Amino acid sequence: MMSSNLLVLAAAAPAGGPPGWVQILPLLAMGVIFWFLVFRPQMRRHKEHQAKIAGLKKGDRVVTAGGLVGKIVRLDDSYADIDLGQGVKVKAVRSTIGDIIPPGDSAPAND
User: Which of 40, 63, 94, 97 gives the lowest tally of CB atoms within 10 Å of its CB?
Assistant: First the structure.
């Protein structure tokens, strides 16, 4: 009686779990999805920003990451002196310059 119950239980048991690579497959799929949706676009934006920073020249109008708008007066390897207005000059780290304002945009409202 006991041995017949064991035979029935042994026959009903599954043959085994899935192979190891099948268990890792969802993690690999999530890694690929993150690569294409998050990391790759971020790296592209970073390269574009580095190219903008490298192409800065005296006289460019820029916007800093803090929202200050001004004209570049002097450039160093890691700093930029920015003229914000009448006698107001600041020294900013080059990497904090957010964008270059193209020439021909509208004049400031108070001019």
Answer: 40
